[in-house]
Amino acid sequence: MAERYVALLRQHEPALVRSFVDVVYTDRRTDLPALLSYHQLVDYLPDIFDELAQVLDSAALDSEIAEAVRSLRMHSQARFQQGCLIDEVARELMILRDVLQEFLWREGTNATEGDIRELRDAVRRTNLFVDELLVQAVLIYATSLRPQVRTRTSHWPPPRRRRTDFPER
Q1: pLDDT of residue 46
Q2: DSSP single-letter state for residue 103
């Protein structure tokens, strides 16, 4: 497995973070800059870039992408605990998608050695990756709010235990 995207994303990580922050700070549809410190806004990005690079380098299947993104649900948990609204988290992820797409179309031709089909496939996987991040955000917010909302793919968090679940001594 060639690690083209791992190297590409690590090399351009500061520029990607800067682009992301610039768009978030100028986007009037979200209050994230007022709610979060700079560090809180960007601290999860290296994890996302690393996981995305692994997905792209391994040419992961859709089901493998969904599984890979489950390990990143702590981002949505943190945003929920920080008091961000779900539409703000969705907007944040949409901005991230735009930044990543623009980056891939600009720099990805080097990683794919000019193969436009491979580049298109990398962009498709990136879109699916961000879609799965959005799904995780919805699941986190749905399971964190009461009453609980049933979902098809998540059994997290586990159901609350009742006193009747424990045998009497």
Answers
A1: 93
A2: H
CB 53 within 8 A of CB 8: yes
Dist. CA 65–CA 51, nearest whole Å: 9
Q: What angle do CA 162, 149, 140 make, to 5 degrees?
A: 95
Q: Which two tokens stand for residue 138?
A: 């919805």
Copy the structure tokens of residue 36: 């979060």
Maximum alpha-carbon separation in the chain: 70
- Angle, CA 166 vertex, CA 163 and CA 169 arms, to 5°: 110
Question: By the 8 A CB rule, do 40 and 98 touch?
Answer: no
d(CA 54, CA 153): 23
Q: Taking residues 83-100, what's their average pLDDT?
A: 92
Distance, in Å, from the CA atom of 20 to the CA atom of 12, rounded to the nearest integer, reads 12
Q: Report d(CA 52, CA 75) in Å as an integer.
A: 14
**pTM (2 decimals)?**
0.79
- Residue 61, pLDDT score: 86
The tokens of 6 are what? 């791992």
